[in-house]
Design goal:
single chain; 452 residues; mainly alpha; 19 helices; 78% helix; binds phenylalanine
Amino acid sequence: MTDNRSNFTSKIGFILAAAGSAVGLGNIWRFPYLVAQYGGGTFLLVYLILAVTFGFALMVTEIAIGRKTRLSAIGAFPALNKKWGFVGVLASLVPIIILPYYSVIGGWVIKYFTVFISGQATAAADDAYFSGFISSTTEPIVWFLIFVTITAAVVILGVEKGIEAVSKFMMPVLVVLTIGVSIYVCTMDGAWEGVKYYIMPHMGDFSFKTVLAAMGQLFYSMSLAMGIMITYGSYMKKSTNLEHSVRQIEIFDTAIAFFAGLMIVPAVFAFSGGDPSKLNAGPGLMFITLPKVFNSMPFGTILGTVFFVLVFLAAVTSSISLMETIVSILMDRFHWNRKITSIIVYGYVLLMGIPSSLGFGVWDFIKPLGMSILDAFDFISNSILMPIVALLTCFFVGYIIKPKTIIDEAEAEGASFKAKGLFTVVIKWVAPIILVAILVSSILSAMGLLVL
Ligand code: PHE
């Protein structure tokens, strides 16, 4: 029965699809901001160390669980140990929560692409433009619908003809555009100060919070703890070397994040005369500050257009992985066919995305946890559910099925797994400790919010 499960046809197909999931909005607007705020080069170093240890161990785990069981998270955990099936359920909830609001933001990206390509950079540079747009009722919903439709079209086409084909085309284009824009930006007047600020360590901004921020960013950025890599692993061939693939995905994800910083930090510096406070996080950076920056630059209309194309590529390959994960969960659970399942998920996303979109306009009186509807979903999935799932996964592997199960899978068909010693230590000891710290800090900040 599991024999007719789809497969990625090649190693490169698998890597580009997984990297497509990993490289997303988080790499482009969140990573540069975190680096700038939390100590520049020191943050980069901490992030890199965490990526090759913690990120590596968790990604190997998830892909191995998927490949071993040939099932998505909901089936994979109980297949390995009946009592631990609930972790699969929790992991499956994450993409179900994220996809609708992620697609709302995806819609904003398409909107900004159309704004720049139609030569309205000056209008977009106005302070009130973004808030005017997201608080309106129909327009953001229409762009959201377009984004979800594109995502669903790829997922309906399946693993090989849809996801693999699209990733093989989109990811190289994304790399070329990102490097191209960052080179152009770095050669502008006044950009060099920004490059220095981005790369040089500034220890004064470094603290324990830096490690927590780097860690939080890391597993969001690598699409961990949401069942995605389990699903993609379930489509990976036994003959593909798992350790090498994970290393390549990590490099890809981190390199794009790094180049995104080289495009955004110097651009904002050149524009603001070296004021780092303009590097605020969140939608404000991408949809308010950057349009102003582009509008002030030579060839800004072209640059803005190219920028939003690359953000779109990053976002859509991530939303595809989210939708594919939900579809494969339902297919594994209910044995429906791909087409029907995709259409059901499409309907669900359309329905659930609308409140997130309206939350900035006519429904802005609804403030769960004191936030907008979109931010509340984001908080619950990223700050609460994901650390819990990651922690339970480490515990499950470290003490229930034992690291050897994962190591054996990574070494299938005589493949080498050089870092297995490191893997074992991280999964059993290091990762759980840091994850508990992240969880506690998220909960405390939520309580802070509730008190306020
Ligand atoms: N990894 C993606 C990023 O860095 C985020 C993402 C979240 C992807 C959820 C898929 C699902 O932006």
